Amino acid sequence: MKRRDNSLAMGRKWGQHFLRSQAVIEKIIKAGEISATETILEIGPGEGVLTYEMCRQAGAVHVFEIDPELAEKLRQSGVENLFVHQGDFLEAELETLRTTVGDAPVTVVANLPYYITAPILQRLLWQRPLPIRRAVLMMQDEVARRVCGPASKEAGAITYFANAFFHTSYLFKVPPGSFSPPPKVNSAVILASPSDMEPPTSQQVKFFERIVATVFRTRRKQLARSLRAITPEPTQWLEQSEIDPKRRPETLTVQEFWRLARNCPHCE
Fold first, then answer.
1. 132-140: strand order across its sheet
2. Containing structural domain, residue 103
3. How many domains does the chain have?
4. Exposed, middle or buried, 199 (CB in 10 Å: 0-12/13-18/19+)?
5. Are residues 18 and 112 in the same domain?
6. CA 39 to chain centroid
7. Pair 165, 195: CB distance under 8 Å
8. Three-state DSSP class for 189?
9. Tens digits of per-residue pLDDT, 156-202?
10. Residue 268, in any domain of the structure
């Protein structure tokens, strides 16, 4: 009789696909540039195949695992520098996260469930509850290309939220056979590193968010039309920001959206 893989049942419950490929694990570890003084935050460690490799190289590895059975198995591993937090990363209190990993920049590693990729990216790279040194993130290939594609036809609101404070780059594709159970589509790994731009004010951050959300609700419209939801006459604002009013939102760079946020006349 064929032995049942218990990971399949757990994976279906939480939308998880457990990484099995040692070659992919090694590439992720290399991309993380992990050192003995490093603090790692892993979201969704699953059965820990990546976790234990990182524990061998990092100073401390903090993991958030939503599945209580998997979290308990990780706790019982006896690895001294592994700290397991059972619960939903998206619902964790920001103060708790700070207390958990400290104030030093962390390296984030995550195999993101497809159905909550956007909310986790929003929290990590836009809300930024923790200072991040670099983030190595695996997700659906189509989403990875969108995230790493500002000023392209694939771009969407998540593209600009993910790249507002970070530079993202597409690293490599991961085929379905690298997982158990195998997903129906390819995955990919991306890298996000903090940008060196001048920090915006809190007001400008709010403006940026409002502008991006507004124009991508009607992405097929020219900016001169979609931005009327913010100001009755956006043409002067666009021209002051050195942006052609006839352009559509997916053609803009991240820097152009920041220019709009800094020059916004009615973003209050």
1. 82-86, 60-65, 39-43, 106-111, 132-140, 187-194, 166-174
2. 6-194
3. 2
4. exposed
5. yes
6. 18
7. yes
8. strand
9. 999 999 999 999 999 999 999 999 999 999 999 999 999 998 899 99
10. no
Please give the model's pTM, rounded to 2 decimal places: 0.90
Q: Does one domain contain both 130 and 173? A: yes
- The answer to whether residues 167 and 221 belong to one domain is no
CATH of the domain at 101: 3.40.50.150
151 CB contacts (<8 Å, ≥6 apart)?
A: 250, 251, 252, 253
Strands 106-111 vs 132-140: parallel, antiparallel or unpaired: parallel
* DSSP symbol at 122: I
CB atoms closer than 10 angstroms to residue 114 = 17
**Phi and psi, residue 65, nearest 5°:** -125, 125
Question: In whole angstroms, how large is the CA radius of gyration of the chain?
Answer: 20
Distance CA 35, CA 156 (A): 35
Length, in residues, of the chain: 268
Within this chain, do residues 126 and 259 fall inside the same structural domain, yes or no? no
Q: What is the pLDDT of residues 45-74, one digit of tens each?
A: 999 999 999 999 999 999 999 999 999 999
Nearest by Cα to 143 from 130, 156, 132:
156
Cα angle 186, 190, 193 (rounded to 5 degrees) comes to 170
Q: Are residues 118 and 237 in the same domain?
A: no
